[in-house]
Amino acid sequence: MKFTAAQIAGILEGEIEGDPNTEVDKLAKIEEGTAGSITFLANPKYTSYIYSTKASITIVGDSFKAEEDISTTLIKVKDPYNAFSKLLEYYNQVKLNKSGIEQPSFISETATYGDNIYLGAFSYLGDQVKIGHNVKIFPNTYIGDNVQIGNNVTIFPGAKIYSETIIGNDCIIHGGVVIGADGFGFSPNQEGVYSKVPQIGNVIIEDHVDIGAGTTIDRATLGSTIIRKGVKLDNQIQIAHNVEIGENTAIAAQTGVAGSTKIGKNCLIGGQVGIAGHIHIGDRVKVQAQSGIGRNIKDDEMIQGSPAIGYSEYNKAYVHFKHLPKIEDRLTKLEKKQSDNG
Description:
InterPro entries: Hexapep, LpxD, Trimer_LpxA-like_sf, UDP_GlcNAc_AcTrfase_non-rep. By secondary structure, the chain is of the alpha/beta class.
C-alpha cells in the first residue's frame, strides 16, 4: 500500500518541504533508505545521512535546516521520533486490518462475538466464549470454553487460551503463548509418589497488556493468576499459578516467577531472572538481569546477583570478587612468611 507525503503529513500533523505527491510503500533506517521508503532523523549524530539517503521521504524536527542540497522530501514535526513511532503504529494497524471468518474454523453454537471480528483459519472457539468488538484472532488459535475477551484485542497465530480465562481490552497476545494451563501442583505421599493437585482457578489479564511469544501463564490452583493493566511481558516468560503482577510492570525474556508471588506496580525486571514463590516484591523495584530473588523486596529497591543483594552493594562487592585470586595469593605468601619467621 502506497502513501503520499501529503497523506503522511496529515496523519502526523506535519509540514511538507518538497513534493507533496512523493509516494512511499516501505519503512527504512536513514542510512539504509532506498527509493520508495520513508525514514526519520531524530539523533543529531545521524544528520550527515540526510544528505546521502535515498529515502523518498524523511521525517525531521521542525527546526531542521538543510546546509547542503538534499533529494528527500521532508516532513517537519515537533518530535520526529514520536512521529515515526506513531507512523509505525498506523502502518501496523493497516497491515493487520483483516476481518471476516476464514474456513475451516470451529465456532461453538453458544459462542458470541462483536463487530469487525477476524478469525483465522483452523481456529477454535469453545462453548460460552464471549468476544468483544474489533478482535483479531489469527490462524491456529485455540480459545477454550467460557473464555471472555474484551475489545480491540489481537491474538497472533498458535496461541492457546485455556478455559475460564478473562482477557481485557486493548491486549496483544503473540504467537505460541499459552494462558491458563495447569499450575505446577503435585503432592508427594510417604513413598515419594506424586499426586496431581487439581488446578481449578483461572487467569485474569487486565487492559493494555502485551504478552510476548512463547510466554506461559498458569491458571491458579484456587482463585486467579492476575496480570494487572499495562503489564508488558517479553518472550518466553513463565508465570506460575496464583502469581499477581502489578500495573505497568515490565519483565524481560526468560524470567520465571514461581507460585503465589506478588509483584508490585511499575517494576522493571531484567532477563533470565528467577523469582521464588510465596514472596512479595514492592512497587518500582528494579531487578538486574540474571538475578535470583528469594526474599521479599521493599519498594524502590534496585537489586542484582544470585541470591540478589542491593545493586550498589553488589557492585562494591564485585570489585573484590575480581581480585580474590590475588588476595588469596597474598595471604598464602604472608602465612608462609609468618611460618618461616616463627
